[in-house]
Amino acid sequence: MRKLPLILCFAAGLSLQNTAPVSAVELVPSGNRNATQPKVPGASARRTRGSSFNAKYQKIRNLLAKDRKLMGKIKKAASTFGIDPIHIVGALVGEHTYNVDAKDRLQSYYVKALAYLNQDLSFQYKGVSIDKLVAQPAFSKCSKFKNSYSLWSCRENVWNVSYRGKTKEGRRWPNHRMGRVFFQPFYAGQTFGLGQLNPLTALKVNDLVRSRVRREPKLSTRRAPEIYNTIMEPDSTLVYMAAVIRNSIDSYKSIAGFDISKNPGVTATLYNLGNVRIRAFALKAKNKRLKSSGKKSKPPQENYYGWLVNEKEADLRSIL
């Protein structure tokens, strides 16, 4: 699942609408495939100094349990996109256990969102705006895509193949993800708000969100503060989280032939890792090789982040 660059060009060039449905879909049941939790990355441990993963889990768990207004918003967002709310709860728990501490009150997220809305922000790297970057000839192949997910996936792929860690157009570009290079203000972090979303992720699912929630605006890279406000303001954050999870479920079903809608640990894993369609194509290719050699195909598995969500599923369902 880690060898993603091998199929970047292939996967990014296909839109969701053009993906052929698989003939048989295998249900991934609830629960973990791994008996013990996969190793937690050192970065997560460093973010937890002075605390513990269990303490951070309890903090976000208690925030969700006590704030019935927040839980109502979670259920509404889940219903809008036809998913079980446990998937949103799982992603929130994973982010705030292994990424950042949850704030004590939901109101704190609204205040922070408004603060970003009033900032003079832009998507750029050392004077080169993201709009100027994607106007370069290397990105012209992406113009055929009108769907926001396919368009930005294509652009991200061009970055990875032609720019990332390379010298192009007279400068050496960082060997980092496009989301990290162009979409983090003041180098303060790569993900933001209650849902710990990246602006690039929001741009990808913008069309999906707007197809279900008419009040949500068409996001533009020329209005960076609006995008940051969108991913940090709790009401819209939850809608975008639901859209990301809906896309994961649909992609794994249509591409890899697995129904992951009953396993919040797998959807939480994908929420954590990103590049969902690429990973779905990678799993499809892997299982095709297994079948050709007479072996049984393997379902998607949870990482350390998703493992916790599945391990705590009964507890998390109790607060729903």
Folded structure, characterized:
With 320 residues, this protein is mostly helical. It has one domain (4-318). It is built from 16 helices and 6 strands. The strands form 3 sheets. It has a two-stranded parallel ribbon. Strands 2-3 form a two-stranded antiparallel ribbon. Helix 5 crosses helix 15 and helix 12 runs parallel beside helix 14. The chain is globular, with a radius of gyration of 19 Å.
Widest sheet, order of strands: 1-6
Poorly predicted segments: 1-22
Q: Calculate the mean pLDDT score and round it.
A: 88
SS-derived structural category:
mainly alpha
Helix-strand topology string: HEHHHHHEEHHEEHHHHEHHHH
Gyration radius, in Å: 19 Å
β-strand number: 6
Number of helices: 16
* Proportion in helices: 40-55%
Envelope shape: globular
The overall number of domains is 1
Terminal Cα span? 32 Å
Strand fraction band?
under 5%
Largest sheet: 2 strands, parallel
Layout of helices and strands, plus pairs?
Elements: H1 8-12, E1 26-27, H2 42-46, H3 53-66, H4 68-80, H5 86-98, H6 107-117, E2 124-125, E3 128-129, H7 130-134, H8 148-163, E4 167-168, E5 171-172, H9 178-182, H10 199-212, H11 224-232, H12 234-256, E6 258-259, H13 264-273, H14 276-292, H15 304-311, H16 313-318
Parallel strand pairs: 1-6
Antiparallel strand pairs: 2-3, 4-5
